[in-house]
């Protein structure tokens, strides 16, 4: 797919040192539009929209807040820890809003797998379908989110 000028500008804001030291793209050399298209297909393989994945990220984060920085049990077989780090980040897509550096770690005890995501991830997944580039230390795979968080399609 062709990358628009606007998307090229966004991609430039994702480079190392613009918003975050390491950037959002890792070693991914693809155009942003191609990253988004591929991850959209990955989410759809699980029958999920980006919004549904983001809603599940929010649900588990909100369940974990009561742990005040320690792991707490969340039914049926999760442990969730929510850590707030000082500082805030803007979204590289340039929309208004600034996001707390909150890290949520979800352990799925049934699968023996875990994943960590930030409030900015929640926003970028839900509003932009962006999971960061391949090789980014902070990339969250749509497949991992779907499986570990056990995200389910909301539609009946
Ligand atoms: Zn945004």
Structure description:
This protein has 156 residues and is α+β, with helices and mostly antiparallel strands. The protein is built from five helices and four strands, in the order H-H-H-E-E-E-E-H-H. It has helices at 5-13, 32-45, 50-64, 119-128, 142-148, and strands spanning 72-74, 78-90, 98-108, 113-118. A four-stranded antiparallel β-sheet has the order 1-2-3-4. A hairpin with a 7-residue loop joins strand 2 and strand 3 (98-108). Helix 3 (50-64) packs antiparallel against helix 4. The longest helix is centred in the middle third of the chain and has 15 residues, at 50-64. The chain is globular and about 45 Å long. It starts with a helix and ends in an 8-residue tail after the last helix. The structure holds zinc ion. Residues 91, 93, 95, 123, 127-128 line the site of zinc ion. Zinc ion binds next to helix 4.
DSSP helix fraction: 25-40%
Describe the sheet with the most strands: 4 strands, antiparallel
Described by the principal axes of the CA atoms, the overall outline is globular
Q: Count every beta strand, where a strand is a DSSP E run of 2 or more residues.
A: 4
Helix count equals 5
| Cα gyration radius (Å) | 15 Å
Give the SSE string: HHHEEEEHH
Q: Identify every distinct bound molecule in the structure, by name, code or SMILES.
A: zinc ion
Mean pLDDT: 95
Distance between the termini: 32 Å
Give the strand order, joined by hyphens, for the main sheet: 1-2-3-4
Unreliable segments (pLDDT under 50, ≥5 consecutive)? none
What structural class do the secondary elements suggest?
A: alpha+beta
């Amino acid at each position: 797919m062709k990358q628009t000028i606007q998307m090229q500008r966004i991609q430039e804001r994702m480079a190392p040192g613009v918003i975050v030291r390491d950037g959002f793209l890792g070693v991914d050399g693809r155009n942003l539009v191609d990253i988004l298209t591929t991850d959209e297909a990955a989410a759809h393989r699980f029958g999920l929209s980006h919004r549904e994945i983001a809603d599940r990220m929010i649900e588990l984060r909100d369940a974990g807040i009561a742990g005040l920085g320690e792991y707490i049990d969340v039914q049926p077989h999760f442990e969730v820890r929510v850590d707030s780090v000082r500082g805030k980040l803007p979204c590289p897509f340039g929309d208004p809003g600034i996001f707390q550096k909150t890290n949520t770690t979800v352990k799925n005890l049934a699968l023996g797998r875990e994943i960590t995501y930030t409030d900015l991830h929640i926003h970028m997944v839900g509003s932009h379908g962006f999971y960061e580039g391949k090789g980014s230390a902070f990339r969250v795979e749509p497949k991992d989110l779907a499986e570990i968080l056990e995200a389910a399609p909301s539609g009946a």
